[in-house]
Amino acid sequence: MSPNLKGALSGLAAFAVFSTHDVIIKVLGGSYSPIQVVFFSVLLSFPLATLMLMRDTKPETLIPRHPWWLALRTVAAVLTGVSAFYAFSVLPLAQTYAIIFASPLIITVLAIPVLGETVRLRRWIAVMVGLIGVLVVLRPGAEPFTLGHIAALTAAIGGSVAAIIVRKIGADERPVVMLLYPMVVNFVVMATLLPLVYVPMPIEHLGMLGVVAVFAWIASRMIIVAYQSGEAAIIAPMQYSQIIWASIYGFLFFDEVIDLNTGIGAAIIIASGLYIVLRESRGHSSENTPVLRSRSRPETGTIPRVSLIMRAVGKTPPRQ
What we know:
Layout: H1 3-29, H2 34-53, H3 67-90, H4 93-100, H5 103-115, H6 121-138, H7 147-169, H8 175-197, H9 203-229, H10 232-235, H11 242-254, H12 260-281, H13 306-312
């Protein structure tokens, strides 16, 4: 089996696990506030995070070198987590994924002020086409614009901000610092708000939250294997396979069928995202390759970002 094929298959498996993770989030979201779901997701992720962080033996402090950038990244991750969990609970799976798939477009735009990236005409056209796809999905004026749509857009923007800041400060900041702060702040914020929304949970629902935490870490590990095996330009597009799982899971468990607008809009967004990934992979069109270097799930502050896990445990960074 070729390295790229192994990487692609690992990526497909990872995003299949992530999609199953999202189904559980959607099921729990029908009974509980996203604040409560995020709180227990973070709580149950801490033991796994601790085991991973114990492997970082560098004798340094946890004081950030770029506190304001890290603060912005932490806020973005916290907002992304609660927004994504809420969007999954109230919107069809395919529609939520289609909106979140706009992240590469947003990262491309953010790379201009944050990284000093030069975005030329072709990538601008891809961004504009992708945004048209978002409008096709949202159908402003034709369909009600709900809080769920706002939450999905917030998740896409927040995840993009968190990702681009990793690219900005990642060379100077310790991975452990960037791993811990979003998780700890998420825990504290959700714990503070929890008394306002708490509903007692039966043991089986707590078990489902445990499965959510385990699935997130299994999928993250699979993505690490994928990027260690294959080229980023091959692995990155595998995230779009989630639209297939959304179709299957949505139909089987939630009686959801992808409507024409969502299907067309998702196709446009995916096509524009793929174009940006392929353009960056050529090497001469983007100095920083911000999308290829931010090519995992949006960071929710419930599990660490894959690239940071790799750096924290001393793994070789994925090839660009």
